[in-house]
Design a protein that fits this description.
This protein is of the alpha+beta class and about 180 residues long. The protein is about 20% helix and about 40% strand. The chain has one helix and eleven strands; from the N terminus they run H-E-E-E-E-E-E-E-E-E-E-E. The strands form three sheets. It has a five-stranded antiparallel beta sheet, with no helix packed on it. The longest helix is centred in the N-terminal third of the chain and has 33 residues. The chain is elongated, with a radius of gyration of 26 Å.
Length: about 180
């Protein structure tokens, strides 16, 4: 009877050892896969995944046309750090397509009449900045920090600036693009 117990004990010991190795490998590869954020490799600090919640209160894709001088559009979004570590993030434009930089019927284009302002609860602010006019990535803010369990509420306001003069050259202009938050660390 002792020999049966000994064989049974050895069998379960080996089985426990093998299952612990398999579980350890699964945890390791799962953590490795989770450290990729927004297509950028992220080095985990103390094996902790740096995570954030990005909430766009409206769609962060903008498709704007038919604006009249003085028209504004407002949208809001928030970034929340759900982790025990500080995160670093950027806010940028992406996939921009626009006709604000094209001359219309021989009339000069005035992209400076199409601007945006972003204000955030952490005090960051961009005022009356010209909307991007090309398809390259366009950084609004870079290297912003967000401490543990904190949120940053932001509001974006897009304006077709009324100069008080005839602006018919910009009346049929259009813009499409995405404003996005990119967590880097």
């Amino acid at each position: 009877m002792d020999k049966k117990w000994m064989i049974l004990t050895c069998f379960f010991s080996v089985l426990t050892f093998i299952s612990s190795i398999i579980c350890s490998c699964l945890v390791f590869y799962n953590e490795k896969a989770r450290t990729e954020v927004n297509s950028n490799k992220v080095l985990a600090t103390s094996n902790t995944y740096k995570s954030a919640t990005i909430l766009y209160n409206q769609n962060n894709y903008l498709s704007i046309s038919g604006l009249s001088p003085g028209n504004t559009i407002e949208q809001s979004f928030s970034i929340t750090n759900n982790n025990s570590n500080t995160i670093i993030y950027d806010i940028e434009w992406d996939n921009v397509t626009t006709t604000w930089n094209y001359n219309n019927d021989g009339l000069a284009s005035h992209p400076e009449e199409f601007s945006y302002t972003i204000t955030c609860s952490n005090g960051e602010k961009v005022e009356n900045k010209v909307m991007p006019v090309d398809s390259n990535d366009y950084t609004i803010f870079s290297n912003l920090e967000l401490k543990t369990n904190k949120s940053n509420e932001c509001n974006i306001r897009i304006t077709f600036v009324n100069t008080g003069n005839d602006q018919s050259y910009n009346l049929n202009k259009s813009f499409s693009g995405i404003y996005k938050v990119v967590v880097r660390e």
